[in-house]
Write a structure and sequence with these properties.
single chain; four-stranded antiparallel β-sheet; 4 strands; binds inosinic acid
Amino acid sequence: MIATHNEGKRREVAELLAPYGLDVVAAGALGLPVPEESEDSFLGNARIKALAAARATGLPALADDSGFSVAALGGDPGVRTADWAELPGGGRDYAMAMAKVAALAEPSPDRHAWFSCALVLAWPDGHTEGFLGEVHGRWVHPPRGDRGFGYDPMFIAEGGDETFGEMEPAAKHAISHRARAFAQLRAACLD
Ligand code: IMP
């Protein structure tokens, strides 16, 4: 089962795991509560979500936690990436979040930024296996491209010249933090 309440994530994970004969059920579909993400690392928060789901269902559970980090901001927004886009009245505004990141980071000449994706597989007995994928590059502003999601339009991977928001989805998926974390999980647990 996948510890997510997000249908998009459930579909992506189901597609990745289908070749291994694994069925995927979402935590949301089972009505599991959303645990508080109280850790200060991606792996720590993914572990909280995976363990809560595995203990509640008695099934192995997979959870992810991901985000965008900027060197000039000491790694922020990091585990608070989604929160920076939160609107006071509810909903998310990523143009606002990207403008905030750029305004705060602008005074520094250091443009280094990266995406991270932590995946944690947890068993009902409390055993966990964690994997961390990262893709490094630089931030740009104003945002470019209308593909992808979230902070994609302000990130250019090392060696590239298009933002993740401009790239073909397949090209992004070949090098993304999520693909790298999944490659590690497959090599360790599935292949
Ligand atoms: P989570 O769903 O709580 O892990 O939050 C992840 C946050 O990071 C969300 O705000 C996403 O928009 C952002 N994020 C994660 N992965 C990507 C990506 O591949 N591109 C752009 N934004 C991402």
